[in-house]
């Protein structure tokens, strides 16, 4: 499960890497985000109604209503920031978005924590010529949050797809890691059939990844 990641990719670089025309960059003035938590706003690449790629801000995590077990009254909604790859086709929360609303989530690193009191934080990134080579997580999005009252009910949100952990992540999080897409697969994820997109849901090669930070209390990349 991933509940913290970073996107420190410069705005112009995001447009270039993800092939978004400047007219379809809806971010305004983007500042680097070394710590993105559920319910935070962050950049996402999706297709607009005309099938063109656009960069937009969305909030992380599909929202669902919650009620207090003690009082039965509504409490803060749950934010589903991860979607398991083996549930995309059968879960009511994910299925429609998987079939019709897939997106790319630009990132530069993600964190997993191991242990408790205190936990040790591990920040994972890709290997390459750059310190934190840019990449994209596989994502889903939706507009509007059914059953949620107030402003949050109108949010456009995204979630991050997870799969089996690779050999680098497994010692920290034994079961899951985010799906990281190869650049040549971006178009397939955005526009391909559900079968073609489903074939991309696999662990990223551990040989192409590295741990770039390790320690206690590292709740942001490059604090």
Short structural summary:
By secondary structure, the protein is mostly beta strands.
Describe this entry's structure for a reader.
Helices cover 11% and strands 39% of the residues. With 223 residues, the chain is mostly beta strands. It has a single domain (5-216), classed as SOS response associated peptidase-like (hypothetical protein yedk fold, Alpha-Beta Complex). The strands form three sheets. Strands 3, 4, 7, 8, 11, 12, 13 and 14 form an eight-stranded mixed β-sheet that branches. Strands 2-1-9-10-15 form a five-stranded antiparallel β-sheet, with no helix packed on it. A two-stranded antiparallel sheet has the order 5-6. The chain starts with a strand and ends in a 7-residue tail after the last strand.
Salient structural properties:
single chain; 5-stranded antiparallel β-sheet; 8-stranded mixed β-sheet; 15 strands; 223 residues; hypothetical protein yedk fold; mainly beta; 4 helices
Helix/strand order: EHEEEEEEHEEEEEEEHHE
Residues in β-strands, percent: 35-45%
Number of strand segments = 15
Rg from Cα: 17 Å
Domains (count):
1
Named CATH topology: hypothetical protein yedk fold
Oligomer: single chain
Category by helix and strand content: mainly beta
Distance between the termini: 22 Å
How many helix segments?
4
CATH A-level architecture: Alpha-Beta Complex
Averaging pLDDT over every residue, what do you get?
95
CATH class identity:
Alpha Beta
Task: Give the proportion of residues in helices.
Answer: 10-25%
Uncertain spans, ≥5 residues at pLDDT below 50? none
In CATH, the homologous superfamily goes by the name SOS response associated peptidase-like
Q: How does the major sheet shape up? A: 8 strands, mixed
Shape annotation: globular
């Amino acid at each position: 499960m991933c509940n913290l990641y970073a996107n420190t990719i410069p705005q112009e670089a995001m447009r270039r890497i993800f092939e978004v025309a400047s007219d379809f960059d809806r971010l305004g003035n983007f500042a680097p985000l070394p710590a993105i938590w559920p319910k935070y706003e962050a950049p996402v690449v999706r297709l607009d109604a005309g099938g063109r790629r656009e960069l937009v801000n969305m909030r992380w995590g599909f929202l669902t209503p919650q009620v207090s077990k003690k009082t039965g009254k509504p409490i803060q909604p749950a934010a589903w920031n991860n979607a398991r790859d083996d549930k995309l086709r059968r879960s009511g929360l994910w299925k429609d978005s998987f079939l019709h609303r897939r997106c790319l989530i630009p990132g530069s690193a993600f964190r997993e924590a191991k242990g408790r009191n205190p936990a040790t934080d591990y920040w994972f990134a890709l290997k390459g010529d750059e310190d934190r080579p840019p990449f994209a997580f596989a994502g889903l999005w939706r507009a509007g949050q059914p059953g949620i009252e107030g402003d949050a009910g109108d949010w456009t949100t995204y979630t991050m797809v997870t799969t089996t952990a690779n050999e680098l992540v497994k010692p920290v999080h034994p079961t899951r890691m985010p799906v990281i897409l190869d650049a040549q697969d971006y178009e397939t994820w955005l526009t391909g059939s559900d079968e073609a997109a489903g074939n991309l849901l696999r662990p990223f090669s551990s040989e192409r990844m590295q741990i770039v930070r390790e320690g206690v209390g590292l709740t942001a990349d490059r604090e």
